[in-house]
Write a structure and sequence with these properties.
The structure is a single chain. The protein is α+β, with helices and mostly antiparallel strands and 214 residues long. It has a domain of 129 residues. It contains four helices and twelve strands. Strands 11-1-4-5-10-12 form a six-stranded mixed β-sheet, covered by helices on one side. Strand 7 and strand 8 form a beta hairpin. The radius of gyration is 16 Å and the shape is globular.
Length: 214
């Protein structure tokens, strides 16, 4: 059975997730989520208090493809995407010149893992998503999704994937409401623009532990 993951974003600047040309990708940040989620699983991103105080819904995506072993960063069709910030160079991955995201010491290891195996170098891609960005709302707090409201309010850093029956049912309904199963749907833009060299680490997208914060 497909699983449903949800977490809070503290940064929404087009990097994680990255939405371009009808594809939503999660290639940086959330290394544990990127490692454990599989094709057909659903990922839901809500805003953390520091991003939007109302914890609005930012995006919902069904995983269409999972790339492992750093394949997202090797020469190919994904190289032009904004979150393709690393490249294969001289037998190892290195920051791509002019990358819009990260760039601080330790970001590469955080995103991809240690050389030579790079165990975190996984990328989730979706063509079946709805991205709201800054235009998202907190409608789910208005009575129809009480279990979701409570779960989001109490969630710290990290993500949740195992849910009791009522919460799971509400998450499934929320995903369907969010135009899932209808292809790519973009209803808003990120809250901010990328700032070169700024790391997302330490602001809510660090290593995640299932069902708890990190």
């Amino acid at each position: 059975m497909p699983k449903i993951y949800f977490y809070k974003l503290t940064v929404d600047d087009g990097g994680a997730p990255c939405v371009e040309q009808g594809v939503l990708s999660l290639a940086i940040c959330k290394p544990m989520l990127r490692s454990t989620a599989e094709v057909e699983d659903i990922v839901i991103g809500f805003a953390a208090n520091s991003l939007h105080a109302d914890n609005r819904l930012i995006y919902v995506a069904r995983v269409s493809l999972k790339l492992e072993h750093g394949d997202y960063y090797r020469p190919g069709k994904y190289n032009g995407r904004a979150d393709c910030i690393y490249e294969w160079k001289r037998g190892r991955f290195a920051p791509r010149t002019g990358a819009l995201y990260h760039g601080s010491p330790g970001d590469l290891v955080h995103d991809l893992g240690q050389h030579p195996s790079y165990p975190r170098a996984n990328t989730l891609l979706s063509r079946d998503f709805c991205y709201f960005g800054a235009s998202g709302s907190s409608f789910y707090k208005e009575g129809k999704f009480p279990a979701v409201k409570k779960a989001v309010a109490t969630l710290g850093r990290g993500h949740r994937v195992h849910h009791e029956a009522r919460l799971l049912a509400e998450l499934e309904e929320l995903a369907l409401w969010s135009c899932l199963l209808k292809g790519a749907c973009i209803k808003g833009k990120p809250k901010s623009r990328p700032r070169c060299g700024v790391s997302h680490r330490g602001s809510g997208c660090g290593v995640a532990f299932k069902n708890r914060g990190c």
